[in-house]
Write a structure and sequence with these properties.
Blueprint lengths: L1 H12 L14 E5 L2 E4 H10 L3 H9 L1 H23 L6 H47 L6 H10 L14 H31 L6 H10 L28
Antiparallel strand pairs: 1-2
Helix pairs in contact: 1-4, 3-4, 5-7, 6-7
Amino acid sequence: MLIRTIAVGAVAVLLALTGCSKGGDTTVVAKVNQTKITAADFKRQLEGLDNFQMEQAVATDSASRKEFLEDLIGIELVLQEAKRQGLDKDADYKKTQENVKKEYEEAKKRLEKRYQDASRNELFKAVLKKELAEKAGKLTPPTEKETRAFYEKNQAKMVGMDGKKLAFKAVEPQIKQRLFQEKQRDLYLEYIKGLREKAKVTVDEKALDALASSLAGTVTLQVPQAQPPASPKDEKKPDEKK
């Protein structure tokens, strides 16, 4: 039965105290001793189940709505009885609460960091689009001469899974793509160079070396999606003269 499923779902989730919500619809739909269950509490806990079928049933069916409210009342009665017995002062309970609070704070920090990273990435892409989109659109594709020169220079790396040398035509599209990406990156590095010349940038070499000792294993570098692809090892650094 759907109504019983809703009831079991509500009890299983056992959400927080129903009388402590802030904001929202303050209309009181039920009162358990001195604790009020408001419309906002009702909606918050229903949404907390993350079950569209249940939400639809409670929203459209009076019996389901009453059944869900009865479950919330039951939860509140149990919580009040636990407090009456002083279980909220129990050492094990307090330890569990401390762990839950710690997990909550850690999750909150991770979400905040994710939000900050997303915001920085969008800002990064926005300025590159504004400053470099037009110039990037005027870049010319690599010529066959440039492509073949790259192929000849890197023949030792032009081998297939079977160890046999790959023909020029077989790798020509990939080489052209790489060379074009390098042109894009050169454009980006030139832009960064101009910004750096107008900024005050200092690097603490000792701190950088000390950081190396704290890096264990392979570190995955988080690079904004909008940043141009990495260029070959032998490319010039941003502050080198071409």
